[in-house]
Amino acid sequence: MAERKVALVRELSAMCARTPSGEVKAWPVLESVQRDGICVEAICPAPGLSDELASAAEKLSVAIASELGVTGALAVELFETVDADGNPEIFVNELAMRPHNTGHWSQDGCETSQFEQHLRAVADLPLGSTRPTAPVTVMVNTLGGEEASDVPIAQRFAEVWRRFPSVKIHWYGKDWRPGRKLGHVNLCGYDASPEGIAETRRIANLAAGYIVDGVWTDGDPANDA
Predict the structure, then answer these.
(1) Which residues contact residue 6 at a Cβ distance below 8 angstroms, ignoring those fewer than 6 apart?
(2) Tens digits of residue pLDDT in 58-97
(3) Which of 47, 117, 202, 211 is most buried by a 10 A CB count?
(4) Phi and psi at residue 108, in whole multiples of 5°?
(5) Spatial CB neighbours of 30, under 8 Å, sequence gap ≥ 6
(6) pLDDT value for 36
(7) DSSP the chain
(8) Distance of alpha carbon 159 from its chain centroid, rounded?
(9) pTM of the entire predicted model
(10) Quick one: pLDDT band at residue 219, thresholds 50, 70, 90?
(11) What is the C-alpha to C-alpha distance for residues 161 and 74, in angstroms, rounded to an integer?
């Protein structure tokens, strides 16, 4: 099998949910940050994405769900690229017909989470609002480190909340294994400027890193402003 080489800018995810009777609602398009083939971070909405491309990606997810007769949540993973003239384009990379890792942000940053919406859709009930509750929400996965931390997990949670009370921790109760998805954190940000988004990402990544290793990667938290 041969695939066309594209000028990859970043990866996006366009999620929607559909009922058997045909109602479809889409969430805002987000940026998915990948490392070693694993989604490590999601930023919703995708920073700097034009309204035109966001609308096209959203409509594409709805069209796919409708054409395929999907019931429940659907994640359309996309490549954002540029053509030979430098114009932005999107290509479908993968379809996931289920609640998806890139939709975890909706648990804390949206009026209706992907999990509630999936249940509503499967039961053919009216779908909920997909309106975000914050200007930006960042989700960071907590992946098992090379070595298990000696710091008890409850203590790691407490330290994260002591330093960053707004961080939401979602833990799966799995046994530790290097690279395994053990949970994720969500953080809602209320400054949608590039600097505000960067700060929300910084805090979310610091929290996720501490949960994994029990070490603050930026040094002494007493230095917080």
Answers:
(1) 79, 81, 91
(2) 999 999 999 999 999 999 999 999 988 888 999 999 999 9
(3) 117
(4) -125, -15
(5) 12, 13, 15, 42, 43, 44, 45, 46, 102, 105
(6) 86
(7) ------EEEEEEEEEEEE-TTS-EEEPPPEEEEEETTEEEEEEESPTT--HHHHHHHHHHHHHHHHHHT--EEEEEEEEEEE-TTS-EEEEEEEEE-S--GGGTTHHHHBSS-HHHHHHHHHTTPPPPP--BSSSEEEEEEEE--SS--SS-HHHHHHHHHHH-TT-EEEE--PPP-TT-EEEEEEEEES--SHHHHHHHHHHHHHHHHHHHHSS-TTS-GGG--
(8) 24
(9) 0.93
(10) confident
(11) 32
pLDDT at 7: 83
Q: Which pLDDT belongs to residue 86? A: 86
- Of 184, 204, 108, 186, nearest to 143 by C-alpha is 184
* Token code pair at residue 92: 């479908």
Q: Please identify which residue in the block is written with the tokens 């996931």.
A: 96
